[in-house]
Amino acid sequence: MVQRPLPRILRDGGASLTRGRDLARSAADGASDVLRPLIVLSRGLVRLLAAGRRRWTATPRERRGALLFLAAAAVLAVALTPYGPVSALVAVLAAAAWLGRDRARAPEESGPSEEQAARLASLYEALVPYFSVPEAPEPLYAHGGEWQRALSDFGFDERGRLAALTVAYPAYFADGDPESRARVERLLHAKCGRGREYHFAWDEEANRLTLTALPPLPTDIPAQPFVTSPGEVVLGLTDALAVRRTVPLVDAGGAALDVPPVVWRTGARSPEPHLLVAGRPGSGTSTLLRAIALQALRGGDVLVVDGGGTGDYTCFVGRDGVLGVECGLTGALGALEWAERETERRLVAANRARQAGEAPPEDVRRPLWVLVDRPAVLGHLARAEGLADPQSHLRVPLRHGRAAQVTVVVAEQYDCLDGLDPVVAQYAKARVALAPAGARQAAEILGAAPQSTPAGELPPGRGYARLGTGPVLRLQVPATPDPYDDSAADTHREAVLALLPRRGGSGLAKQAGPAGEEVPVEAAGAEPDEEPTTQPVRVSVADA
């Protein structure tokens, strides 16, 4: 049987298809060369729009109106300027061309350097006893194993220390046990370099632990009038990843900053109306109380009781809005007894106003702040002299202070916390722990362990804060020294003096019952018989 030849198109089809592909590729290359300027401009415009959208998303809601006004003013100025629209168009095209260019990528390294690999291998070997069990069939952690399977997303700083790391751990590890977590965190803190603070994020679903080296919080922010709503108090500064709010600040050098704050909301609708501060000597508890007092004086009255008798609050004596600064036992008893009766008086006045269908009086709506430093010392002195513990007069303000616009702030040292009245710990749900000795001590005060490890040496005012059942936040208290302390920086002392109200007469002339007469707290539906007799009570400032 004679074999017929194939058609020509089938015999020479391979060469024709090859030439067709070459022609199509050449045409595409030529078109890309011709349209390259348009491609670059389009890519740049897309990147400009993406950058603008990111900027808009990152701007807090309270500042978006000002940003829109600024943008509208800029557009109007460009429109009214001669050759303004043309110049703006040229500038936009130039920026788009610059952003749309092909960015030469640096050649990616195949992996970490020898020193970095040795550091990661050493860290992997150190984690083996924590994440391995003998009966595991294919252990993720084993001596001499591959660290690449367990450690990823690592980053190093300029000194060669780990700045970021993701650790994969087996599913049988007890990541819900605080003690097991604490052991791993202590090991990573030691291996990654001491002297820094690290944040640990445990992803229990994916069995991943992410370590991040936190930058130090600024310590040169002086006391200043913070931009807050009524009833809000800035306790200090924190990390940008912890809160989504920022406040405009000015540092000691005069530079404007936007810093995330720790804001404590007080008042009738606050879930945590009272604050407990714990710290070591020199950790900044008095600094925090001074910062709170300066902010409270902007719209309220302040009563200060200095149980330690150190004279750290002498600068408030005789100032407008300051009802008294007590340093002795007798004065502290009188001041706290007055605060107790003033709380009862406010409750009675507010109840009568509600029964009459009226708003509470102005003196009832005005916030009253009771700041008590070292009450355990006063309790010890009172027991030695056979007197009542001054803390017993804090029970009524702590229990009913929310409705009476009375806020109580108590500061005590760690070794004297046992001397606090149980009512203080029960009702002071906002907590601050300054310079804790470790995560366990911070957890005892805050009710939860912090997600970061403290550095070796903490500056004054550094610690942790927790408002109610919220997360534990890093905290740096603004520099609010005693303005009469010559060892403090002059800029910080001048900032405190600028915030202090002018000196006036004694402010403690509120309505309160006599010391030997009880003021009843009436029920919501009870009708008062007659107006209780009131007289002013004056609390003198005792010498330290």
Automatic annotation (TrEMBL):
Residues 502-544 are annotated as: Disordered. Residues 512-526 have a biased composition (Low complexity). The chain crosses the membrane at residues 66-99. It comes from the Bacteria. Keywords: ATP-binding, Membrane, Nucleotide-binding, Transmembrane, Transmembrane helix. GO terms for molecular function: ATP binding. This is ATP-binding protein.
